[in-house]
Amino acid sequence: MSEDIHERQRPVVLEAINAVADRIESEQDHLTELDSAIGDADHGANLTRGFSSVREELEEIEDEPIDAIVKEVGTTLISNVGGASGPLYGGTLLTASQELTDGITAESSVAFAEAYLAKVKDRGDATVGDKTMVDTLTPAVHTYKKSIEEDELPPLTALAKAVDAAERGVEYTVPLKAMKGRASFLGWRSVGHQDPGATSTLYILEELLAVAETHLEGETAVEAVAENVSETDESADDAEATDAEQT
Amino acid sequence: MVGVVVISHSPRAAKGIRDIAVEMGSSDTRLVVAGGDVDGGIGTDPNAIAEAITEAAGVNDDHRSDENKTANDNPTQGEIDDVVLLVDLGSAVMNAELAIEMVTIDNTVHIADAPVLEGALNATVEASSSKATVESVIAAAEDAREYSKIN
Hints:
The complex is a heterodimer. Chain A has helices spanning about 1-25, 30-40, 45-60, 65-80, 85-95, 105-125, 135-150, 155-175, 195-215, 235-245. Chain A is globular. Helices cover about 70% and strands about 0% of the residues of chain A. Chain A starts with a helix and ends with a helix. The N and C termini of chain B lie far apart (about 35 Å). Chain B: GO terms for molecular function: phosphoenolpyruvate-glycerone phosphotransferase activity. Chain B: InterPro entries: DhaM, PTS_EIIA_man-typ, PTS_EIIA_man-typ_sf.
């Protein structure tokens, strides 16, 4: 049975990997621009090099089970990305891929997301508010888990909500002072700049959603509002603003 | 014996640190460097670090039989040595941690929380002692944090 699910999901996973590689390539200059402001200006080039290698590798792994494919993507990124992005984008996939041995289900995708976030936090020794990809991943993973496990929403809707949360996480990195990585050497000068790693992480999530949309049923026009918005005036204002942006 | 690996973003810095450490007269220590990214540019490469760890541990060590003629006298010789890593900047730490996970040999590998140059010197000297352990090498490397250069 689990072989069936690997068989069935493999083309979708390969499609998603290609979509992510495309997006990273097309955003290369933008990512480099963000990284030149507060880093060493190599994020776009590094990730592009990594994902080009992944793309070259795809043919060789296209008959593997899902977890093996994801693991191979991780290994390829580790060997080709360079800098901190190797362990943070590749090493985490290597670890989290262990959750996908029975393919991608609502349950295993939550486990994968949690394992990924845990590994990123552990490896980078970063937490929310440090102006890193953790600021993108934490709201995304928490929202995804809650949407699946508590609200019992369809995975596609949960993913859409997660991407929406991730987007706000990226925006949240702008006014923060960097606490980790090369950007932290800039101290206060890092304030006012969007974190490149947080940004590329959002791009990856957006592509996963875009591919999921063509294969899964569910609501994707999620509203970016807190559940208890009516309780305080301030958050109601925020909700209105966000609604306006969306329409 | 304990092996030592020096990891730097710069291949030349890593090699230079090794040159300085070797000059301290600790040529007995297996001191291996891993500097630069995959293309030899500024960065660190987990695969290269993993290879350096393996080499520093004495796995497939061709020199061992030649240089350590006393190997048979010591029951621990011929086994795989523990390794201490000295690193420079942040992503070197991450890639070193990843490399430790990638290496499948059965030994203890630790990263010293120490300045890379001074720590490497201390570690190299301590690691050449027959009584050296991972703990003693780490402690020696981390002593370098306390060094005051100007009175």
